[in-house]
Amino acid sequence: MGRGVVPDETLACVANGLSDDITIIDMNNLRPLRSIPVGRTPHSVRVDH
């Protein structure tokens, strides 16, 4: 599982290899905001500001 956090630490992105998507997580509430289909077996995330 890959993950990345935006510079202000309000959002995290997590690669979900088993479901072929990336989940965006609100770090203030620790709740998922959205899952985005990305293709087959994502394993890493890169966050660029």
Task: Describe, in plain words, how this protein is organized in 3D.
- This protein is mainly beta.
- The chain has one domain.
- The protein has no helices and 4 strands.
- The protein has a 4-stranded antiparallel beta sheet, with no helix packed on it.
- The radius of gyration is 10 Å and the shape is globular.
- The N and C termini lie far apart (21 Å).
What can be said about this structure in brief?
The chain is an all-beta fold.
What is the count of β-strands? Answer: 4
Low-confidence stretches: none
Approximate helicity band: under 10%
Q: Mean pLDDT score, rounded?
A: 93
- The structure class reads mainly beta
List keywords for this structure.
four-stranded antiparallel β-sheet, 49 residues, mainly beta
Question: Topology, pairings included?
Answer:
Elements: E1 3-5, E2 11-16, E3 21-26, E4 31-37
Antiparallel strand pairs: 1-2, 2-3, 3-4
